[in-house]
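SEQUENCE AND FOLD
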Amino acid sequence: MTSTLDWYGCATFRLRTSGITVFLDAYIDRAPGADGPGASAEDIDECDWIVVGHSHFDHLWGAERIMAATGARLIGSYETVRLLEQAGVPLDRMICVAGGERIDLGGAWSSPSTRACTRACGPAPTTPGPGTSASVTSVSPGTSVPPGCGSWGPG
């Protein structure tokens, strides 16, 4: 098995391994006049997953366009999921995490505990999105975060 890691500048990498393509952050475009990789989010035509470290623009910007073009799923914080939901990304294409989760990018959905998220977003989806699947399991028993829980938060 061959794995490759391509750097797109700032904190954005593309990892190809085990037959999947994962973007670690999605900031490919740059502000006018700023140096960049010579590509834009619209140029990305292959992506299964996007993992966003945090929701600053230089990590998140472009994820919505990559997801629209490729059908990719996203893993990110509650704030990341909330912002992308506001940008029109369907909740069932995102997994919110808070820390400590283990996500198997090749298995089936598994959420042993739905935690407080379900009060705002309803039950966690039980089927994966088209062409991909994942399982969310927790490092500590009973602390899993369900997929697609972007509406949970204060208030």
